[in-house]
Amino acid sequence: MHTYHTPLDLVRDRSPERPVALARPDAVATAARWFQDKFKGDVFYAVKANPSPWVIETLAANGVNSFDVASVPEIELVSQFAPGARMAFMHPVKSRRAISQAYFDHGVRTFSFDTHDELAKILDATGGAKDLNLMVRLAVQAEGAAYSLSGKFGVDAHDAPALLLAARRATQELMGVSFHVGSQCMRPTAFQAAMSQASRALVRAGVFADVVDVGGGFPSIYPGMVPPDMADYLDSIDRGFAEMMVHETTELWCEPGRALVAEASSILTKVELKKGDALYLNDGSYGSLFDAAHTKWPFPVKLFRGADGQACEVEGPLKPFRFYGPTCDSLDHMPGPFWLPEDVREGDYVEIGMLGAYGVAMNTRFNGFGDAETVEVSDAPMASMFGLAGRTIRLPREQQEEDRKVVRLSRPKGRAGKSRRRR
Ligand SMILES: *Cc1c(COP(=O)(O)O)cnc(C)c1O
After folding, report:
1. Whole-number average pLDDT of the chain
2. Has residue 421 been placed in a domain?
3. What is the count of structural domains for the chain?
4. Which of 151, 167, 158, 68 shows the shortest CA–CA distance to 108?
5. Phi and psi for 275 in degrees, rounded to 5?
6. pLDDT at 364 over 90
7. Residue 287: which CATH number?
8. Please, which pLDDT band fits residue 410 given cuts at 50, 70 and 90?
9. pLDDT at residue 411 above 80?
């Protein structure tokens, strides 16, 4: 990977024609060390958030040597870039062939499921293996997540006890519970609440769990979505764990995706045309901007201009813009608002920040676009949960108004902390 100190150095050096993904391995390293240090258990990285080889390598080099995978290609990727790493196959619905390959070819021992049928499938496809770690995925009432992840997977409270009992009987090794409170969870107490739901299911089943896997959902910072301190999330998990019926040796696991990588990538795009308040860029919803288009997240931006070796970052009075991507699909639209200097013009470069999670990972080649190269940079991300940059994104007052609207959208009904119990 070519290395530049800053995106501006890249613009100055060679005014790139195609979009460029900017990789910040230091940001991954810092987040990885933070979780390794502070989380009182095992940290599995959820590969789907960003499967770039440099991400896998940086995590492994910084102590995160366990990976949550959901497909055979993800397993092969981890085997290649973090040889010897431990993997957990946490997709609750898998093909028989994927289960066999994971077990026999890659040494995967941990599998999750949310039905009796899937449990039977796992036992069958591993030849009745006796050394499986079996993780029951529970549906939990998630409060405060920007993205719900319990609509599709998870056994409900009514059916959970029988499935927990079946799992307990099916293995001599670890039996655990897992859940996902939803991605970009804005409320630390959601973890404690989910753990108390898990605890109730275990008590009703009359079994102890060997593993409590609190999943992902740890947030990053986006305009309008500045979460509480990451330490508050771990405190909530500590409280939840202390209240659970578990034994001395019960392990705590987590599966962060977003939090480990969100800060670590941005994309440098070129303005191909300005039409009123619309900027036509060379990257869009089929490239790295899926969330900007489909969930209308207003990612933070910076503007660079590369005129005749006089490259500079452009500042000045800001105006709200929206973006169109390069494809001919009218869905390729990112409403923003993105606050940029009002004199932004064709040929300028817009850096769109905080795209390390579910951004660069979503790239397609639709319509002949999306072929971005990756270069490494070492400047700070636009915002940081881990002290690499400020915890807010500087915005004009009008944007702060918009921010409040976004927060309202992403905030569920119900009072914060109502599930908190004191012992
Ligand atoms: C996507 C996913 C994660 C990661 O979620 P984040 O919100 O990115 O932390 C963790 N576990 C499972 C099972 C997932 O599907």
Report:
1. 91
2. no
3. 2
4. 68
5. -130, 95
6. no
7. 2.40.37.10
8. very low
9. no
190 and 139 share one domain: yes
Residue 417 lies in a domain: no
Cβ neighbours, 10 Å, residue 17: 8
Evaluate: CB of 48 within 6 angstroms of ligand 1.
Answer: yes
Q: Is 56 part of a structural domain of the chain?
A: yes
Residue 260, ligand 1, Cβ within 6 A: no
Tell me if residue 102 falls in helix, strand or coil.
helix
Which tens digit of pLDDT belongs to each residue from 7-65? 999 999 989 999 999 999 999 999 999 999 999 999 999 999 999 999 999 999 999 99
Does ligand 1 come within 6 angstroms of the Cβ of 359? no
Claim to verify: residue 254 and residue 308 sit in the same structural domain? no
Last residue of a domain, one of 227, 261, 295: 261
Q: What is the mean pLDDT of residues 96-125?
A: 98
CA–centroid distance, 331 to ligand 1, in Å, is 26
What would the mean pLDDT of 243-250 be, rounded to a whole number? 90
CA gap 194, 47 in Å, rounded:
23
In this structure, are 243 and 353 located in the same domain?
no
The pLDDT value given to residue 148: 67
Whole-model pTM: value is: 0.92
Ligand 1 within 6 A of CB of 23: no
DSSP reduced 3-state for 421: coil
- Tell me: do 274 and 215 sit in the same domain: no
Predicted local distance difference test score (pLDDT) of residue 416:
37
Can you tell me which atom of ligand 1 is nearest the CA of 218?
9
Listed in order, strand segments (DSSP E) in 211-353 are 211-213, 251-254, 265-275, 278-281, 301-305, 312-313, 318-324, 333-341, 349-352
Expressed as residue numbers, the domain containing 321 is 3-21+263-403
Question: Is the residue at 416 inside a domain?
Answer: no
